[in-house]
Amino acid sequence: MKQDKILIIDMGSTKNTYIAREIRDLGVFTEIHPHDMTREELTKITNIKGIILNGGEHRHVDGADIEPSEALLGMGVPVLSVDHDGMDPWPESVEERLKKMKEFVFDVCKAEADWNMENFIAEQVSQIQKQVGDGKVLLALSGGVDSSVVAALLIKAIGKQLTCVHVNHGLLRKDEPEQVVHVFKEEMGANLVYVDAVDRFLDKLAGVADPEQKRKIIGEEFIRVFEDEARKLEDVDYLAQGTIYPDIIESGTKTVKSVKSHHNVGGLPEDLDFELVEPLKMLFKDEVRACGLALGLPESMVYRQPFPGPGLGVRCIGAITRDRLEAVRESDAILREEFAKAGLEGKVWQYFTVVPDVKSVGVKDHKRSFEWPVILRAVNTVDAMTATIERVPYDVLEAITHRITHEVKGVNRVLYDLTPKPVGTIEWE
């Protein structure tokens, strides 16, 4: 189907996503690409109506400015160059910038405002059917928003050709495996395979403290589990993933150093036996939710709190131990219970606990204790690229602190993280 596109070319800016979101809000689809795109890469993208060269603080590499490839400049479509992280060399208001962007997109590029979820779903269904044909697909179904929306899209596109696999890697929240099986297998009638791989994952992660290494181990082990499950089925050649646009952007471009690798971007093994199906990889988080609603998923599922692919593995800071992992799981359950009581469940975008591999002196039962702290984090965001801190009422924090220090084994302190994104990230690892 026809869907006009504007390409945002990363020339070293940290504001690529801002421009991309602004143009999508105008109803025109945008994609962010590196400055050195080849002619072959460009021919795979249809309906390119214009190009925005977005320079910024990272444009200087080895003493020289990076320049757009000849293939980009030879496209024969209108080109707009902006600099200073998305702003022209002379200061202008947001209104002026948006007006200039609107004029470029519609008056100069003649793009049509045909970007909406109905068109996106129709295009993705067509692409999935074209890619998969009569093949079979495996999907890692965590029960989170991304995998649930992918499941709905795949069911719409290929129906019974999809097998959903729920892997319990021991890094899920309290009672989550049971909830996932109940909702998807019993209520939704999905073709669901449950895999208990707790010992397998925790044995692989034993003694590993580096967060990047943990992510890669978890990502690779997921693939190995799927390969094992695929062997039990017949002729499964495709692996579906809930990769979304912030995953790809944060994993880095050719001009901007990555924030962190994501388990489904930087953690895949080189000898992957499946062809990937990633229908959400160009959507921001709020767009994924809108897609889920358009597909008819219930709001309770669409607005479920985000959960990282590596699960509690990136919230048990440092080398993962079973007792400290249990402290993360139990404290997280208390936090969610108390937020629900206080009416914060639907108000705050994401909240969770972190337990670092450090201990401090405290007093419990009139005796000296030497135990872990639990760190609380609660943030609000639209697209996961920036985040602000939720101002939790003090009485709620007191109630959470009392419960955690009295109910969670091995914990004697509770701290509250007040760091926005940037300078911090949403997760700790």
TrEMBL record:
Enzyme class of the recorded protein, top EC level: ligase
A GO molecular function held by the record: ATP binding
Binding site for ATP: 142-148
A Pfam family reported for this protein in Swiss-Prot or TrEMBL: NAD_synthase
EC assignment: 6.3.5.2
One annotated Gene Ontology cellular component of this protein: cytosol
InterPro entries: Class_I_gatase-like (IPR029062), GMP_synth_C (IPR001674), GMPS_ATP_PPase_dom (IPR025777), NAD/GMP_synthase (IPR022310), Rossmann-like_a/b/a_fold (IPR014729)
Keywords of the record: ATP-binding, Glutamine amidotransferase, GMP biosynthesis, Ligase, Nucleotide-binding, Purine biosynthesis
Domain of life according to the entry: Bacteria
Listed CDD domains: GMP_synthase_C
Pathway: Purine metabolism; GMP biosynthesis; GMP from XMP (L-Gln route): step 1/1
Residue ranges of every copy of the GMPS ATP-PPase domain listed in the record: 115-304
Role, per record: Catalyzes the synthesis of GMP from XMP.
PANTHER family linked to this entry: GMP SYNTHASE [GLUTAMINE-HYDROLYZING], GMP SYNTHASE-RELATED
UniProt protein name: GMP synthase (glutamine-hydrolyzing)
Gene responsible for this protein: guaA
